[in-house]
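Suppose a colleague, Dr. K., hands you the sequence of a protein chain of 344 amino acids and asks what its three-dimensional shape might be. Before reaching for any lab equipment, you can write down a predicted structure in token form. Begin with the sequence itself:
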Amino acid sequence: MVAGVNNSGAESSQRFALSAPRLDPESALLFVINASAGAIDVNSKRTVIETALAARGRKCELLTCEAGELPRVAAQAAIAAAARGTAVIAVGGDGSLNTVAQAAHAAGCAMGVIPYGTFNYFARTHGIPTEPAAAVRLLLDWRPMPVQVAAINDRVFLVNASLGAYPELLQDREAFKARFGRSRWVALLAACATLLRTRRRLRLRIDVGATFRDVKTLTLFVGNNRLQLQQFGAEPTNTLAGTPGDGTLAALMLRPISTLSMIGLMLHGAMGSLGEAAGVEGFEFENMVVKPTLAPGRRELMVAFDGEVALMRAPINIRVLDKPLYLLKATGAAGTADAPGVGA
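The predicted structure, expressed as tokens, is then:
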């Protein structure tokens, strides 16, 4: 895929970089730790952070909470970070990062990431080490840089959002992880189980700009992360200035197909050539409104964003947000596709 030229986007990035929040090196960094997330116990996470910061003489506050408390704790930490001229640091997987990003984006403070997820697409895309101790050490040398975030209705997402079979896949993945442990192969097994049994079709009216069409699909997947799309082999043809995660979003639709065709589709995905598979359509967009046909009396449908699953009221508006997220990272940092996988 050839990257598009987007001079206005480059000018916007420069403007946002100049208006990035300033950090006070004397102010303590605020770490938000989801005690319920991941296979590593919370005390080990705290030790990694405290050891790395003590070596550099930097102060920190470690805010540990259970999953149900995470939105409240993240929001309070982000407001405090904005007031004190410091950053709020998300410690965890995709779901934890999403919750902290929602709060940091709203408060306008800088955000850092210490990844403890299965795939860590967001961290890897932005050059953040997946080894937590290394990520903590480098936080102190990085500065806030604007990165693109998107929204599905009123929820921010960093990596992807979806309707249809993909939210079911995520629910199955959590069940498989609880039974077999956390690994990329367990996630892949869960994906295969979901796709082979799903037959529920979505009937959608999709409005993009001044055009609309009616479609039937098993799933609508929206990517805000080029690294994940590259691993799928599903980057769309460059029809807009910018690329997914840097100016645009990418949509993938899977039309209803037979079980045999589904097996072939999964093989394409495993080999990183999903975009070449029959029955998969991809396109780029900046703003899309999705109007599903729902059963009488229903107003909501299941959606997923960055590994989290929730009910949302239709219609569904998916868009690139004008306001960026200010992420602590090195100038010009870029991730690499270092491992295959299926995930949020």
